[in-house]
Amino acid sequence: MNHPGASNDSGIWSFPDPSPTLPEFPGVGTDAEKQQFVLLQKQLPDLFRRVFPNPRSQQTVVVIPSLSLDQRELKKITGVHHYEERLLCLLLLLRMPCTRLVYVTSQPLSPNVIDYFLGLLQGIPGSHARKRLKLLSCHDASPIPLSQKILDRPRLLRRIRELAPPGSSSHMTCFNATSLERTLSVRLGLPLYASDPSLSHLGSKTGSREVFREAGILLPDGFENLRDKKDIVQSLAALKRNNPALRKAVVKLNEGFSGEGNAMFRLTEDANSGNLEESIASRLPTELQFEAKGETWESFLEKYEQMEGIVEAFVEGDIKTSPSAQCRISPMGETVVISTHDQVLGGPTGQVFLGCTFPAAEDYRLEIQSAGKKVADTLRDKGAIGRFSVDFISVKEPEGWKHYAIEINLRKGGTTHPFMTLQALTAGEYDSETGLYLTPAGQPRYYYASDNLENPNYRGLVPEDLIDIMVYHNLHFHGPTQQGVAFHLIGALSEFGKLGVLCIGDSPDSAYKLYTTTVEVLDSATQE
């Protein structure tokens, strides 16, 4: 049987002409390119009105899982080049019988990984799904964004255009939208289901704080639009003077993500000290505590001066959680909160995203949902579309929970693929009245998900080994019960001993039990 991406099917899936002939395009970053992108985006409302309500509508989805982020920050993430696999959950769109999918990656994906995802499809023969899937690769492992690699390959561009012709019921989706994805959208002739890159500042740390104020929701004391060490020092001193009891503050890079661009500073000075700024300035290079491994003051400051950042008070509390709201703005301007999560955080000062539980705690998930909706409405009014999430720090006080908005992730983040996978596997719906997810039979489902199940002993496990182990121990996902374990980041397992897991259960306890059992099984199977 031909594997998708290697087959030579007739019609739209064949490439008889080897010439890389393409139309002429406007220059990169020019006003003409931006205007052409705006025209393409105007196709989205009609496309989504016609296609989204009907699962039997013909459409082609071009998935570009490019991590178009600061490459220095990406290097901090173990096995980051395998994160292009996180959007493989979109292969489950092939459950819709007339949907075609084009998935482009830097390096070829393992056939066993593709087999695994197609095996999760409910009610669709694998052979039928394979015919509607095309895998393309740049065969390029260099540390530059995938979108740039595609732009550098005119023949690959032409293949994608033939698979999803301009003017057809096709669109492009990506991890995050930058000027690279805008150029790629124009050269493919496809609308991009994401916000215009000109709005990307709304998802920066500075932009997030500005949006929170406009939306009228609570945020920590702090300062944004900071440029250099002097700004950092003055902001830390001002925080201490405004709140003499403040013990810690966080310094954040504007474009940091997963908490890796954050650093903690302890404010030990007397707020009334006459040399407060001098004391902070002298301690800052040696006492700023970084979340990212291997970070130094010199490298952090260099990045800060380039991308700017914020300083804000560290939120204290005896009982403290880190929930998030995942939202969607449709091309028609409809805003909806599609899930809430409690984030699982780690790292030296507890700011690195490790995973999440769904839904957020019953005590406050509807409050988080409400705050998320306010942010969604504010972003909608600024022209944003697509999926995004809002992170909070929540503290329990005698009068109830206080929720401090921390940042907007204007992209598909760490809570996106677990929830999309849950939807695809169970065909249920999120109930906004309760904040629960209900199967078609009305049964609630919960999950525990992690991108960071990591153990050096797991190195050397290839995808077949993982699947053999899980099937033997009955830990795979079961369609009839709509419970079990689904995996992602499988490609990172053999080289890095790292894996992503989604554990779906009929209660929070059963979901977490599946996770701990999965860890125990893998640890036992790989003991030296």
Explain the overall architecture:
The structure is a single chain. Among the domains are: 11-194, no CATH class; 221-313, no CATH class; 443-528, Alpha-Beta Plaits (2-Layer Sandwich). The protein has 17 helices and 20 strands. It has helices at residues 31-41, 44-51, 71-74, 111-119, 126-131, 146-151, 154-163, 179-188, 205-215, 229-242, 276-287, 297-307, 365-381, 416-426, 463-472, 493-496, 508-525; strands at 59-64, 99-105, 133-137, 170-174, 222-226, 248-253, 262-266, 289-290, 309-313, 320-321, 323-329, 335-346, 352-358, 386-397, 400-409, 429-431, 436-438, 444-454, 484-488, 498-505. The radius of gyration is 23 Å and the shape is globular. The chain starts with 30 loop residues before the first helix and ends with a helix.
Provide a concise account of the structure shown.
The chain contains 17 helices and 20 strands. It has 528 residues and is of the alpha+beta class.
